[in-house]
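Because showing beats explaining, we think one record worth quoting, sequence and backbone structure tokens together, and here it is:
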Amino acid sequence: MYWNKSYECMPREKLQELQLERLKRMVNRIYHDVPFYRNKFQEKGLLPEDVKSLEDLQKLPFTTKVDLRDNYPYGLFTVPLEQIVRIHASSGTTGKPTVVGYTRNDISMWSELMARCLVAAGAGPHSVIQNAYGYGLFTGGLGVHYGAERLGASIIPISGGNTAKQIMIMQDFGSTVLTCTPSYAIYLAEVLAESGIDPASLKIRAGIFGAEPWSENIRKDIEKKLKIKAYDIYGLSEIMGPGVAIECECQDGLHVWEDHFIPEIIDPVTLKVLPYGEQGELVITTITKEGIPILRYRTRDITTIKAEPCACGRTHLRISRLQGRTDDMLIIRGVNVFPTQIESVLLEIGEVEPHYQLVVRRDGSLDTLEIKVELSEALFSDRISNLENLEKRIRDRIQSTIGVNAKVALVEPKSLPRSEGKSQRVVDLRKI
């Protein structure tokens, strides 16, 4: 049930004492070793000694992805390059990628936390873990890989893609745990069905899915189609990679490993810290990383912090399933719209596949939203009147959910693009 019970179930008072001790040490290091942070502190008239309690964290400056890019590649590192044993970078779709470095101790700590995550999701030394996250500069593949080796499980480093081989490996190697993005898990289930393979004939019983927001309804869909228990994992390369937080068997929020990270929720507009239970932007401070400690990183992920005790016995705070991102959020006629809201509606209605695409256009001064939704094979040849009724039901439900009228276009099965990594749900054609 636990990988390291003494830390995972540490009493809150002792955990907070440990956090404060580590926070003070981290703040002192970045102030003296990173000019960027020293300048930020001086702008606010702060010194490391001003951090006397965990509440003082709110006084300290934020770090953003722009800051990492402005200091590309090594400007935020706190150790010389000869002490960095691993370098990862984000995909960097615009501008320079964000670069992170790991000392030998950072890699050990990352492996330890990923081992915690794997055990929380039911894995153990007996497990055969099929790792379909990408290897390379992306942190997903190697993060899971090192955690599995620390745990003593058998790891299959197949990486993403090559779906036919993925299925062959599942069958022949007896994989018991699948790790990949949720959108790829859905695609795997689709290919299994097309191949006439019953997922129950496989040994996979758990899946650990992350790297993109996914709804509770997507979880139910994956669990039904793959006949597994699906766990949500959270991480980002700027903070560590996968393993910052994960669900336990209760599946009631993701435990943040607070002996290494301090989570906050802020209002993304006012930047004020919000109380537990209120939805806002997740901010994370690393308190044990050596290569590139990050202070109050604005993740852009929208969630809440759950402070009530978890039935599993772990004492670390939990974050709720991500609701979307502030930078993925669409503003349609003044209304905030997240793709996951659309996803939930479609899966609640059923009768359509969990594949959709949001197309945003600007007609004069008015924004328009079109939602392309794949029909199931069973409904594709249905009567036009039935399809029109389904289209209207989807349109009405979406309007009542997000408060925006949208055009709904039912498209034929398998006509929308598939992804072996992170899915691209939004096509924004506005010239803003």
